[in-house]
Amino acid sequence: MRISLSLLVTLSLAACGGGPVESFLSGPASIGPVTLLPGIEGSPCEAASSCGSGFLCRKIGGSGVCSRPGVENASCADTSHCAAGFICSSSAGAGVCTRPLVDLRVDVNRDGIVDVAPGAADDLDEDTWNATHGAIFLANIDDDEVVCSRTVTGDVQLAACNDAADEIVNGADDLLDMAVMKVAPWAAAPMTATGKLLSTPPGKIRIFKQTAGNSWELFDEYQNVLSADELKAGVELRVEGKDVVRDSAVWDGYVSVTLEVSGIENTLTDTVKLRTSPVMTFHHLEAPQTSYVTRVPRDGSSTAFVNALKGAIANTTEKAPLVEIADNDQWTQDFFETGYMTMPAAGGAQHTIRVAYRSASLEQGGFLRPAGRVVFTSFRGKDAAGLQAWSPTQDGNSSSLNSYGNTETIPPYSHNGQTYPLGRLLRGAIPSFAPDPVLSKMMESQAVQPHLYVDTSWLLVGHVDETISFLKAPNPRGWVLLVNDAAQAKAMLEAQVAAGNGNVQMHVGKRWYNYNTNQYYSAAISISQVLANTEIMAASAEAVGEVNAQLEIIKAATGITEAEIIRVPFLHYKEFGYSIAYQPGTVNGFVAGEQDFISPDPFGPVINGVDIFKKDLEDKLATVNQRVHWVDDWDLYHANMGEIHCGTNAARVIPAAKWWEGGR
């Protein structure tokens, strides 16, 4: 059909209108009314409303024409020429539409690698953190170049000296202790673009940026920016934690980092969330990697004990090397506690920094227990750190509770719908008799091994290791509980009296020391004499009730049954009104391997050539495939109100269980 000039003019006018225009034109009646469409490609316009669906009004030189919005690589003069989700990126005066790429990446999927590929798992839900995903970093408090112990002496200064205390990367090993973070490359970033990195809460981490020369420099969140060239190429970063969580009410260990890019039409951001590793303690199901003992200089009983301990360890499966600490404080278990922090590494591995807690016990004059300095002066180094926390106003009557014989780890278990893949901390405390509150707050704030407290206020020393221990076992739970039972000790002795052996002596060849006369006297005593000693019998009866109260708390928390409990018999007596083991406390031994328990020699009554207390423990532990190794600790430990566990320590194999999968 031919259209007259007047019709073309009408169509042209209608094309610049704001919508369909119905016009009745002259001509053959068969044409009828015509519906005109809004502006299409190239039509003049004043605004997008003048153009058809899918078109925008592009202004050039003050006049507008209808055109399709630019998508990837379309030419543009400004972002108004680009489709939604695109910006106009210009270089040397020429602009193209490009999708903005403001993309910060961390190891969200915990495979030890940060993937910047489009759509990679490390870009999914990166601003949340839970048991299945979320990045992790370490408190970088080790001393990879081992400089602190050579340059610092004061207690506070010594603890404050570590790799996180400075603003440099302390060598290649230090770099491995930092979490990887990357800015994904945005090749089409406009030259006006700049980037900032901001962490929340501030001050908990330090960020390092890789330079063109492959060195590392501090990225100051308040002063430094990422250039357009860096945004184009992508940026390699590292995250260093400055400290562990010390009070979860102040800081819960989470940090959010935001990449903020400005210099484009609208400032754009991308945020990732990370969590610092808690410090975890070891349970007895893990084999020892290093054993520790103190050799007191010029002390014959210490030398004899250390040599006997060496012999026992040599007969274990693991044969964990024995490190000797030279100090006058023989209580090796008490002045430090071993632990660790981990984050994911490539291949499903864990990168670890071992950590040793220093005891918070205060000596006369308010000074920290000197032997505890070993965590900084001897242990700290490459991938090894020390920690201390204490209150200068702590209750002196409870100071003993800050010794780590009062900190044990219940092995992993599940009960009442709760799972504890790394176990729980077991400590002695009641409101009126509790460890240092600052140390306790720090240990509780690690969160993944929730505390369980029992009453040890009735004990002279006040430590949980005096009455309780744990051993690996081939049962569904994987472990058994060893618990003191003074009633059983009494029953064993009464049975010997009934068998006509009441005159047989125990503690033969051993001696006590009388501090009033400054003289030693024989500890040998007959079975009948022990049973006739009303003070020993009363203290032992009281101990039965107190231990049962501890046991009820543990049963309720763990679900452990009587079939999974091994009763360890020894009697109690009182000193200064508080209870202590009368016989060597055989529960208080060193777990020297997955199947080896080193116990204090009980020096019990020997009947038909057999020490009845040795045989009792050997037979019971044999049922759970455990071997007992006997060591004489009488002079060095037992007579001084302690036992073998009090005088030994261990750093153990890092558990295969990954803390971040535990849901805490």
- The helix/strand class is alpha+beta
- Span between termini: 78 Å
Poorly predicted ranges: 1-36
Order of the strands making up the biggest sheet? 9-11-15-13-14
User: So what's the overall shape?
Assistant: elongated
Query: How many helices?
Result: 12
Number of strands: 43
Average pLDDT figure: 91
How many discrete domains? 3
Oligomer: single chain
What does the main sheet amount to?
5 strands, antiparallel
Cα-atom radius of gyration:
37 Å
The CATH architecture name of the largest domain reads 5-stranded Propeller
Helix content: 10-25%
Outline of this structure?
With 664 residues, this protein is an alpha+beta fold.
Keywords:
664 residues, alpha+beta, Lipase, subunit A, Immunoglobulin-like, L-arginine/glycine Amidinotransferase, Chain A, 3 domains, five-stranded antiparallel beta sheet, four-stranded mixed beta sheet, 12 helices, 30% strand, elongated
Map the helices and strands:
Blueprint: H1 5-15, E1 21-23, E2 34-36, E3 44-45, E4 56-60, E5 63-67, E6 75-76, E7 87-91, E8 94-98, E9 104-106, E10 135-137, H2 148-151, H3 155-160, H4 171-176, E11 179-183, E12 194-200, E13 205-210, E14 216-219, H5 228-233, E15 235-241, E16 254-262, E17 268-276, E18 280-281, E19 288-295, H6 300-314, E20 322-326, E21 336-344, E22 350-358, H7 374-379, E23 384-387, E24 407-410, E25 413-415, E26 418-420, E27 424-428, H8 437-444, E28 451-454, E29 468-472, E30 479-484, H9 486-498, E31 505-506, E32 511-514, E33 519-522, E34 525-526, H10 527-532, H11 534-558, E35 565-568, E36 572-575, E37 578-581, E38 590-593, E39 596-600, E40 606-607, E41 610-611, H12 612-622, E42 627-631, E43 648-652
Parallel strand pairs: 10-17, 19-20, 22-23, 27-28, 30-35, 39-42
Antiparallel strand pairs: 1-2, 3-5, 4-5, 6-8, 7-8, 9-11, 11-15, 12-16, 13-14, 13-15, 16-17, 18-21, 19-43, 21-22, 24-27, 25-26, 29-30, 31-34, 32-33, 36-37, 38-39, 40-41
